[in-house]
Amino acid sequence: MHVGLVWLGAAVLLAAGEAAGGELFLLMLAAGALGGAGAAFLGVPIWGQALAFALVSVIMLAAVRPVVRRRLLAALPEHDTNTAALTGRDGTVVEAIDSSSGLIEISGDTWTARPLIEGETFAAGDKILVHEIEGATAIVVRGF
Known about the structure:
Elements: H1 3-21, H2 25-41, H3 46-75, E1 90-95, E2 103-106, E3 109-115, E4 127-134, E5 137-142
Parallel strand pairs: 3-5
Antiparallel strand pairs: 1-2, 1-4, 2-3, 4-5
């Protein structure tokens, strides 16, 4: 079997491994393996093939990977997560809310709540809007 085919097999395996990781590291090594395969098909001795693999891999890791990662990450939309995702959501009062206690339901989850405006109260069934989350308590205002 020709050594170039071994390099091609390594490139395919590295590229397949990249599908599991997604860090673009193995893909850059796969490009290096393609460089080794090209050298092998040109008749370069094994030490030259290894050198081609190393050079192409280093160039890909140092020059191409950072640029590609930056472009991929810039294309991802930013989404709020955890409690930040609840700000601005509407809900329903489950247990009457006053300045000391109360429960609301937001997207199927029950949260303790208190009003944003001191002294304001909400009855069970009222619609509310989450102004912010402080710890495990939702600070709410009257909904629409």
